[in-house]
Amino acid sequence: MKNYCFLLLSLLMFSCSQKKVRSTAFQNKPGLDLEKIDFNENPLEILKSKIDSSANSQEEYVKKGYSAPFDYPVGYKFDPWNGKDSFYGKAYYSKVTDSIAYYKNINFNRIAFLTHKNKTVAVLGNAEMKSDTVYNDLIKQLTKQYGTPSLRPSTTMDVFYEWTTKDRYIQIDYSKGMSISAMSGKATEMKETFNLEMLIFNKDAAKAIQEIQQSNYAKTKNYKIMDGDFKLYKGDPSKNIILADSLLNEKFKD
Could you tell me which of 47, 94, 97, 204 has the fewest CB atoms within 10 Å of its CB? Predict the structure, then answer.
């Protein structure tokens, strides 16, 4: 009788354990959780066979020696932003894959990593949304979580926001587009698309880039930015009107 009770108890515990495992697995979303980025990620390990080797290279630049595949920024020798030290690191992009990453309830179909001296400094996610309400909800969510945005657009031409936290900058950019589908025997369909970019940049690495840009400007009076997909708008005069005004005022002072 004791053996029977022990066996029944064991089976019950095993069944409960299995249910718990299944429940946990069901709750876990597929892909990389962008909210848990700690900049210790290994892009080559995460992406593996999903790397898009053509996303961050221009064949013409490679042939002429202006940059190599995965170099960031692309063509850094052709258009140097920091003289002989214009090479910054490597950028690895994923192929377009459903739910390769997520942030809260938003699924991203493409992610990219920027590395500097073999260490991840930034992660970029791209998502296609069904409506602009998702973007507006994300703004409210991030504002509730991180406070008032530290940078926002000053014109109606752009739609972007940035939040500053203890160890990172979080930048989101929103744009509308059109997709066209044409099938034999059917009328061409045009559909409005809503695109979201989320950039998570290590704060110390971002500040170092900004300091280089400002230092170079002080020497040359020519403000050059490290351009590319991982560009933080706070260091771009075309996006940051306060920065643009300060450069303009300094120019007139001279």
Answer: 204
